[in-house]
Amino acid sequence: MTETAAGKPLPVQGRQRALTEELASLVDVVEPAPLLNLLLERAFELQATDLHFDPQPNGLAIRLRLDGVMHDIFRLPQQMSSQAVSRMKLLAGMNITEKRLVQDGHISSNVLQKERDVRVCVGPTIYGERLVMRLMPDATQLTRLEELGMDDAQVGQVRRALANPYGVVLSVGPVGTGKSTTTYGCLHALNQPSRSLVTIEDPVERRVAGVNQIQVDPKLQFGFTEALRGVLRQDADVIMIGEIRDAETAHIAVRAGLTGIRVLSTLHASDTGATIDLFREFNIPRMFIADAINCLIAQRLMRKVCEHHRENYTPDATEQKLLRLNEAPGKQTSLTRGVPHDTNFHSGYFGRTGIFEVMYFTEEIREMITSGKT
Predict the structure, then answer these.
(1) Which of 133, 225, 237, 312 is least enclosed by beta carbons within 10 angstroms?
(2) Cα separation of 230 and 212, whole Å?
(3) Cα–Cα dist 278/252, whole Å
């Protein structure tokens, strides 16, 4: 993917309008390949997480997910729709003649002078094939724990947990809440030449110098469980498991944490308490949960108020009560909110940060789990 119709970077002020106008000016004068390359470049430039190509009766609706919210960007005319989807399927290594089944693929491309990875999924709809691209983070950049959005006390608890010579540290939350970023941050904190570090991922999202990274392949019956069993025989000090998806993987991870290995992983759970309940559903004894886990990190991603368009306001009584603002007589609290503008795609927000619940396993918490207290 080297051919592109790209010009200058989008202006900060008015970027949504600028992108739409840019695509409209090119759609009739360039081939689909450079137009799609430009679209992918702009999506990365805007820090989008997903790029959708949704078939409609009159063309292909192009949509971006920015800060967790979908935005309509452009509509490709009907005569270009099938050609555009076929182009992306070809780049992703898919069968371009198969239009009846769901297919998954992968694109590696140099975008904005960096090697970037894109996961691609295509499937049939009543109006044609729908294609969704997941734009993976910069594979060379790791976020430090202090940059995730935790307060100083939470960072201290996580670092204390990581300092233990063995045990499990889990990042938990729904899909798309930054669990992998947090887990990579923990891996970065442990990455020293004196340690043997191994990751087991599906797929490998970021390349980390000094770390042995394994990509599982379920089609070859080489999943997380099979890879984890093998790594346990390879003298690892730290093992990062991309995701604990089933009871068998959970049992192996807990046993590894009990036998002298630091284990990092992610899990789909709503909060720290639900994580313990889920491990019990996996039939892991309470004593093993209490002894193996050092820290649970539950998280969500929140949109940030746009830096360029914001205003101060005085919260009403309902909002003050909700936020537990105890105002002294005669004193008014001033808060800041975003102002919808073309710069922030008319949302008032741009960018996201994490909010966290950190449960560091003290002796008191371990005793409560062992005894079944809530």
Answers:
(1) 312
(2) 13
(3) 15
Average pLDDT over residues 248-260: 97
Percent of the chain with pLDDT over 90: 72
Which CATH number applies to 15-135: 3.90.220.20, 1.10.357.20, 3.30.450.90, 3.20.20.70?
3.30.450.90
3-state secondary structure of 254: helix
Contact 182, 173 (CB under 8 A): no
Cα separation values, 76 from 35, 73, 177, 247, 267, Å = 10, 10, 31, 45, 38
pLDDT tens column, 265-278: 999 999 999 999 99
Q: Give the global pTM.
A: 0.87
pLDDT tens for 147-188 read 999 999 999 999 999 999 999 999 999 999 999 999 999 999
- Tokens representing 352 are 């996201």
Residue 192 makes CB contacts below 8 A (sequence gap 6+) with none
Provide CATH 3.40.50.300 ranges for the chain.
145-302+351-371
What CATH code is assigned to 145-302+351-371?
3.40.50.300
* CB-CB contact of 263 with 168 (8 Å): yes
Which residue spans of the chain are classified as CATH 3.30.450.90?
A: 15-135
Structure tokens at 237: 């000090």
